[in-house]
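Quick look at the format.
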Amino acid sequence: MNLRKWIRELVAVMREEDLAEIEVRRLFTTVRVRRPGGEMTMPAAQPAIPVEAVGAGSEAGEGAPPRNLIPIKSPMVGTFYRAPAPDADPYVEELSSVTVGQTVCIVEAMKLMNEIESEVSGRIARILVENAQPVEYGQTLFLVESESAA
């Protein structure tokens, strides 16, 4: 089956099932189709939460909701890794402090490991991507509660 026909069939399935995104893997080929404006789907254990919802106090029982949430976004398409090696500790955890220039994760693209650094000082309020998951250009990876007023 040629790739163009395969993609058309995936788009038809997306329309029939009202899906925002679909990914199919066959042997050494992976095809992901996403509707324009569709957000990356998150695993059921960690639903996607927009920045506005987090800032509006989506977590009950934590007192005042975090303010000054600054996203750290992926500068490229690739695979997200929280640690420098499979057996190593993650660069950051939720609620850990970060400084400008501190490495927060790795995005692997074309077998190159690209260290992603924080551009803001603060505290990691939320990690939005699971380890070893594919990420898109501009996708928010972390939300940082900034120490300074934004």
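Next, a different chain entirely:
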Amino acid sequence: MERNSLKASKRILVVDDDQDIREIIMYILESEGYHVSGLDNGRSVVDTVHQLKPDIVLLDVQLGDRDGRDICRELKEEQATQAIPVIIISANHGWPSLCEKKCNADEFLAKPFDLSELVDHVRRLAA
């Protein structure tokens, strides 16, 4: 199977209430060959994860309606979703250790991030 075919079989959910950031992330990952869906709020993340069954979730911490750490913790506590890797993204550079301890995120990516760094994180978790 071709490398892009493997990527195309991987589904990624991007959750960020900043439309520009969400669209850039989605564009970059789609251009890498991944199947990408996006959400602009936190209230429907858990239901969407159950429906889409993504291979990776990229989740902003500061959503307008919910704290991404709470959503991550909820996903990691449910048996049906606990194995799905979650990359927490945030402009607050002091949160990596707090996110790891409080919500069991698999990885942390600080905004602004280099797009190649984003792709590297996703590739590693999608492998």
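Residues 81 and 100 are 17 Å apart (CA to CA).

See the schema section for token definitions.
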